[in-house]
Amino acid sequence: MEPAARIEASMAAGSIDAECGFSKTPEREARFIYAEPALFQVRYHLVARADDAASVQRWDDVRKLGDSGIILTILGFGPVSRLRALGSLQIDSNAKTPHQSSKTTGWSRAFFYHRRPSIKSDIRKLGLKGKVRTLPTVKDRQAFYLTFARHIRPAVIERIKAAPRQLEKTGDLKHLADKWDDN
Asked: Which member of 34, 39, 49, 85 has the greatest number of CB atoms within 10 A?
């Protein structure tokens, strides 16, 4: 999996034609063409140690924990800028992988910020099943789209853009998203 910044640069340079999974940002909308509807929606949750009794409903609950409310993320993880914009949150985004983050912190009083779908499978892959729990409150939502580089001919883009619209119309887009959701 390549970092989003590298994919964006490759699309702008013309070596990649499309991406199946960019969220909308003003910068990206200026550079790329989005197909509607969104292909899927991601929900972001906090993951805590299983024995951590912290009850976090709002971001203020995390802020009140002070040095015990660190939010762990992965280096280059897109939502970090959204977290930073919330202000006064302690964010550690130095780890290169979820595995590195879980090993270096030992999951002392900290929360890992991760997305659904993929939380359940990533927890299993990290060997943390039964050792951590996903807090139920959705902290953020983002829609992800099929996105095209501007060098693609408009007629080609229009033909391809018809597919997500047809999948939504038949209900297959929702069915695929539900099937992919591992929680």
From this structure: 39
Q: Which pLDDT value is given to residue 1? A: 58
Buried-state track 56-69, b at ≥16 Cβ within 10 A, e below 16? beebeebeeeeeeb
Q: What is the DSSP letter of 66?
A: G
Q: Give the C-alpha separation, 62 to 46, whole Å.
A: 10
Sign of CA dihedral 122, 97, 22, 7: negative
In 10 A of CB 135, how many CB atoms?
A: 16
Counting Cβ atoms within 10 Å, is residue 32 exposed (0-12), middle (13-18) or buried (19+)? Answer: buried
Q: Please check whether residue 88 is in contact with residue 62, taking contact to mean a CB–CB distance below 8 angstroms.
A: no
pLDDT at site 99: 67
Tokens of 48: 């805590």
Q: What whole-number distance in Å separates Cα of residue 14 and Cα of residue 150?
A: 8
pTM (predicted TM-score): 0.82
φ and ψ at residue 156, rounded to 5 degrees: -70, -45
| pLDDT tens, residue by residue, 89-112 | 999 888 777 667 666 555 556 788
State pLDDT tens for residues 36-66: 999 999 999 999 888 888 888 999 999 998 8
